[in-house]
Amino acid sequence: MENVLRPLAVIGGALVITIVVGWAADQTVRRIAERRPEDPLWGLLRRCRMPLRLVLCAALLRAGYPSAKLTHGHGTVAGQLLTLALIGACAWLAVRLATAVVEAVYARYAAGDRDPAKMRRVRTQVTLIRRVVTAVVGVVAVAAMLLTFPAMRTVGTSVLASAGLIGIVAGVAAQSTLSNLFAGLQIAFGDIVRIGDTVVVGGEWGTVEEITLTYLVVRTWDERRITMPVSYFTSRPFENWSRGDPRMTGTVFFHLDHTAPIDLMRERLHAVLKSTLEWDGRAWSLVITDTTPSTIQVRALVTAKDADDIWTLRCVVREQLVSWLCREHPYALPRINTAPAPGLDDAPDRRPAPPTSEDIGPGPGAS
Prior knowledge:
elongated, Alpha-Beta Plaits, SH3 type barrels, alpha+beta, single chain
């Protein structure tokens, strides 16, 4: 009977202490968060209550299981399992604490700085820092678990003796992975590309949706996802439309007939821009940029605050001006001439030459 009551008492006592201490810690953090709503750290720390309870329970059971006086075989297995559970719970708690601190720092920064470019840069760095911390804690936890086994300690001596050769082989085998890992850190702290940036890679236009230590996800305008290794962005040129100042200048080209009313078209463009919310009012123009034997090329220049607005504005300008030309000035649209131009017969080089004396002949009385 005593062999049954002792383990139950140890387990029950550990559970009671865990529940009481965990509840008290959660209530304390909640009250502090209510008193300091401007500080997001305390609200984020409440996410740590589950790993904290697991750490408390595992630690209490690990410390109290000898009092249960289990048999030698059962005691060794129980002690090993509790040690592994305690290491895993501590790693989980460390990751949650680090995540809460990093996200609290980002939230405090976001509340004080409204610059979109800086916000994207900090968010990218925060995301990668969180992933690095998680990876490091995970590796350390796995190593600590392996070292709890006596066999692994014995093998460790021989492993250290051949560490140089293993390091060389691992470096060669993981060359691509390591290059992506360092490229991810370079992107995070070198400010090359950030989450939310508008980029053009491989001829595809899209927005950076996710950045990890090894790959980057670009969401295209048609909602496709392109996954690319982060080393691509450190070894090849690419277009970043929102780096620094997100404002952009766009152009719309029209191929029209030579008789197109440029002045009226310029006035119409200005009227369209003034009625469009996407135009930021910085600049606009409409000029003839090229001519061909059958058409002229007219360029409309517009500005907007970011890449999304400039795309929408270009489509609106193109649609409105084409509709206006079709409705009010259809003669300005490009066409193939199959008849002489008006007034061609009156051109100086096409008028008939005046008659000469030879054409008229000798006058009266000539012999």
